[in-house]
């Protein structure tokens, strides 16, 4: 499938004392929602920090919107303004009030819309007890983790951007709000008519699967699998079989869970013929099942 890229990376690398991120070829397709998946410490935040400009001390070439180098993106306000970012840390200072967030955002970003910000505050039910749905005097330090994340999302959604980089946006959110987040990302992509893209890291793969078009799976600083979800669901197959075939199948399956009656696991579609003669059924795996299989197959952790 041919597609343009919101971000392209060539030979991206960053060395820490005990960790190296090394990605020869990174592609974030334009017009889609991309999930960045990987175990703790795989390098997702490090990569998002590079893309957002928080971290510039890396090697390699990044190209934004098929046109702008990382340096150009940092230098040109018109390009930087097209990119929105939310992180997991204390992005807004604790002493800031919601009014400060609004004020500072409108000073920092040309395209920040105060009415939209307040609309998102109401839509995300950030201040359900406030009569107008926006508690401008409330300090960030008085907000829960989830509410702070919702405030960051309101702040970034209130800007006119073409690329959202969201680091773990779903983690602190309750299930209702994860659903809302999916809806917001879905609307952002569809309103963008092929021009707007989202890259979000997540451990909540199942909750975010409905809006994930493309997935990048990382392990220990490397991309170990990537592709459109519909293609991954053809590349990998969920196999269920009888207990008597479990041992033979375990040599072919990426991962296997067993019980006294049978087994299930993920295998590459290209290896299906190796299961010939076994009494197995085939199903389309979920992105969660594919991700766990790929992560288990590539992890350097000792899993017991
Ligand atoms: N400033 C730093 N100095 C040294 N090592 C660092 C630094 N920042 C990150 N690392 C290391 O880089 C690795 C990747 O960290 P990163 O936060 O990118 O992982 P992650 O995939 O986002 O993890 P998680 O899912 O737990 O949030 C880790 O081993 C971490 O210890």
From TrEMBL:
Q: Which residues form the ABC transporter domain?
A: 7-245
Q: What Gene3D superfamilies is this protein classified in?
A: P-loop containing nucleotide triphosphate hydrolases
Write out the transmembrane intervals. Answer: none
Which InterPro entries does the protein's record reference?
Answer: AAA+_ATPase (IPR003593), ABC_transporter-like_ATP-bd (IPR003439), ABC_Transporter_VariousFunc (IPR051782), P-loop_NTPase (IPR027417)
Q: Does the keyword Nucleotide-binding apply?
A: yes
What are the protein's GO molecular function terms?
A: ATP binding; ATP hydrolysis activity
Keywords in UniProt for this one? ATP-binding, Nucleotide-binding, Transport
Protein name, please? Answer: ABC transporter ATP-binding protein
Q: Could you tell me which species this protein originates from?
A: Coprococcus eutactus
């Amino acid at each position: 499938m041919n597609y343009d890229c919101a971000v392209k990376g060539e030979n991206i690398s960053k060395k820490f004392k005990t960790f190296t991120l090394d990605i020869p070829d990174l592609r974030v397709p334009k017009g889609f929602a991309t999930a960045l998946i990987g175990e703790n410490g795989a390098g997702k935040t490090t990569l998002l920090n590079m893309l957002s400009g928080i971290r510039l001390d890396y090697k390699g070439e990044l190209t934004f919107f098929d046109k702008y180098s990382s340096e150009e993106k940092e230098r040109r306000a018109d390009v930087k303004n097209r990119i929105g970012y939310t992180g997991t840390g204390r992005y807004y200072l604790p002493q800031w009030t919601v009014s400060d967030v609004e004020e500072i955002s409108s000073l920092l970003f040309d395209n920040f819309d105060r009415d939209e910000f307040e609309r998102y505050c109401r839509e995300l039910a950030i201040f359900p007890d406030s009569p107008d749905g926006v508690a401008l005097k409330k300090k960030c330090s008085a907000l829960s983790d989830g509410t702070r994340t919702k405030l960051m999302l309101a702040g970034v959604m209130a800007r006119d951007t073409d690329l959202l980089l969201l680091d773990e946006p779903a983690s602190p959110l309750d299930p209702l709000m994860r659903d809302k987040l999916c809806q917001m990302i879905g609307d952002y992509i569809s309103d963008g008519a092929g021009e707007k893209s989202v890259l979000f890291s997540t451990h909540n793969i199942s909750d975010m699967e409905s809006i994930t078009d493309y997935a990048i799976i990382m392990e220990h600083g490397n991309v170990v699998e990537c592709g459109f979800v519909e293609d991954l669901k053809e590349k990998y197959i969920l196999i269920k079989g009888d207990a008597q075939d479990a041992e033979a199948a375990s040599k072919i399956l990426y991962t296997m869970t067993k019980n006294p009656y049978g087994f299930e696991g993920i295998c590459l579609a290209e290896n299906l013929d190796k299961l010939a003669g076994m009494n197995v059924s085939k199903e389309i795996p979920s992105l969660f099942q594919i991700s766990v299989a790929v992560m288990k197959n590539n992890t350097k952790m000792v899993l017991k």
